[in-house]
User: What shape does this take?
Amino acid sequence: MIREGSINIPFLYAAGKAGSEFLVALRDRQQLLGSHCPACARTVAPARAFCPGCGGEEMPSVDIGPGAALVSWTDVPGRGVFALVRPDGADNAMLHKLLGPAEGLRPGSRLRAVFADERQGHITDIEGFEILGEGS
Amino acid sequence: MRPVAIIGTGQTDHARRRDDVSQPELVREAASRALTDAGLRPADLDAVVIANMELFEGRAMPELWVGEGAFANGKPCMKVATGGTSGTSSCIAGFHQAASGLFDVVLVVGFEKHSEGHTQTGMALTDPFWDRAVASGALGNFALSISQYMAERGVTEEQAARVAVKSRRNAARNPHAHLKDADATVDDVLNSKLLAHPVRLMDMCPQSDGAAAIVVASADRARELCPRPAWVKAAATRHEQPYIGDIERRLLTMRTLKDASRSVYAAAGITEPLQQFDVAEIYEPVTYAELAWYEILGFCPEGEAGRLIEDGVTEMGGELPVNPSGGVLSANPVGATGVIRMAEAASQILGRAGAHQVEGAETALVTGYGVYAWADAAILGSAA
Amino acid sequence: MSERISVAIEMAQGWRYSSGDAMARFSEGLRRKRIEALQCGGCRRRYLPPRPVCGNCHLPLSDWVPVSDKGTLEAWTVVFLPFLDARTGEVRDGPYGMGLIRLDGSDATLNHYLAENDPARLAVGMRVRAVWREELRGAMDDILHFEILP
Assistant: This one.
């Protein structure tokens, strides 16, 4: 015997200190924010409250992007191209969508963040990353 | 197994909604305070245990997401999720890790952000063939057992209300508590909204956002790092059969709590709990449960819990202060709640409980309670 | 205090569960208003819900025994707080009565709704009887609730 069902559950997540700052910068300045750890001399994207390397909590925000380099990608039929992109000025990659076909892509391909016209402080305020061409 | 001790604790300020921080940031607050309390740096940690009921927040693999907040990057890390016992069980897992000799210093962090999900729904997702059609969550489950307890032991609504008053008054001296009321009265409780007969709003634990952490160390490291460690004298955990109807006379017998407590009493040489414990931090999800636990834990004979609360035996300044922190009734971020019990008891032994310190506390009892059935018990002491 | 951003997400929680043989037989029985428990040959406990193994003795269970749709109220409450119905996600308004009922012939108690929702008219030890749905579907809610017997 099989029993099936479904209910809807509402969630409301707080972006927190670093997350809120990141989303406000997207919305108000069309700007990507990372966090710089002076101890590790490393900038992580997106902004966060503590360093994933040393655990340090002195993490001033820094502007990164909008230019970015492609790290890796996958083409999901019907859903688009998802990619790990490393914004210029950051030492790690973040996950987002590519605006354009996957043909001709290679690690290092140059990208640029495209911002939505109507922004609401959400990760989708970045519409995606457009493909500029092959990297050096 | 080698002796282990708790050498530091940390808690967030617990509240209805902590939307000033993300989940990882909330976890970091507690973890960071525990490290500072223990006088350690992140690199000194050998392993991390996390407690959380992820269904409440609807976020897969919270140990991955919040791990960074708990200093878990690059270290062994695991999660414990056993309802209300998640916190105490994760502490006991941390004890075992250090006692086994695998690790010298283990950080245990529990957290929950009830404001971010829908706890009632999470609690109602029970066996779809049997009791999902008639599930009424934690509240209904407690209320159901209370009629039986009242009928058999003669406990009154006034006596239960005294538990709520004690809890919220104690909480007024605890900077971390969610619900504080130094002026709470029995009448306030009896006039608060009826949720499920006979449980009123002030009888019930809140749903809180919060995190708590402890640092567990092997004997050598504990002696090196801490002038007065809170030694783990014994710890036990017990689970039950799966359905509410499997458990005979639940609040009256609570066999998991009885078994777990008798196991730790035997290991630590406790024969007269009321006399031998200086303080207790017990997991009381509802006022009536605290009274039932007095009897199960052997603080008094069956049927005399009402007298115990009326005589002030468990108040601050009484023979055995129970929940100087304000208990679960005053703060309940579920995954953290059991860690809070352990951290509070450890702080009492460490002599760092501040305005709610029980002077000279040397032996402390901790209990955990999960779903309607599971139980943990632990004894902390000032002597190794 | 800088601006706080929150993200709202509504997620559909879907499921598809298999009952196993014991619960399938039990559920089929409900269609004929028949309640059966599985009894352990070791400790003699009669299990509801029926399941394949005794939780105490760990012996396999295969002896079906009939259980009455009448029983005794072991514990009760009246819920005033609106509560979510986990079958539908809809809110169930209070007040409604709930009981732990020991059906005659079972050792376990059954958690179910009561027809009575006045606390003054409920007491531990009362005799109760199942009120069945007209159109039986082979599920626990074929029993609408339990009514108090005089």
User: Anything to note?
Assistant: The interface with chain C takes residues 1-15, 17, 19-21, 23-24, 121-122 of chain A (CB under 8 Å). Chain A has a mean pLDDT of 95. The longest helix of chain A spans residues 16-29.
